[in-house]
């Protein structure tokens, strides 16, 4: 663990930082005495978390309520942080959602919102804060990808596609940043016990009958990889095996396997 003297003046900005993996990541940073900039849609939840982290860890917590489904929000967020005089030493792009169902039966406007949140807003925030990091030659970025980034996902086609984008972007930036002191890391969890499934209307998916990962374990894996400057980390042995097998199987077989895992209970295709 890093020492207080190293981190007490540093800031970690975490989107989606009030619940799930984002919340657990915020705890990791607070334990290491990073000051926090928490971003989420609910000001009430942000205030609750700010009070919790301030009391428990003694760190400064700045809260900014933003809806990253809005294309203007990443730019507004960046400007608010700059106007507050905060230097973001670590950016964590955690905010993301999915939507369960067959692609042709989905609301296209909802799917386009997911693309905005999962890829466009993430890209904008990465670009805005990365430029400052490169100029300082200091900083770290953690991108929430997923093992979905390497597995075609029937019943969650757009979500899997957005995570493939996140992984591809991250892997490209790893190379572009190799001669700097700035690092970027992709965290690839599998199905994790968070509110993701409720927001994605996935209660009837067969994946809910599988053992879900603990978000605290996922966050710790991601935090440790980030601090070491690793390019990416697949969290959990089961997920490592699944991705490893997918690398040697034909794509159509991987997609069929994911179809069986994710399809509605009682449905066979």
UniProtKB/TrEMBL annotation:
It comes from the Bacteria. Keywords: Oxidoreductase. Signal peptide: none annotated. InterPro entries: NAD(P)-bd_dom_sf (IPR036291), SDR_fam (IPR002347). One of its GO terms (molecular function) is oxidoreductase activity. Pfam families: adh_short. Transmembrane segments: none annotated. Belongs to the short-chain dehydrogenases/reductases (SDR) family. This is SDR family oxidoreductase. It comes from Ilyomonas limi.
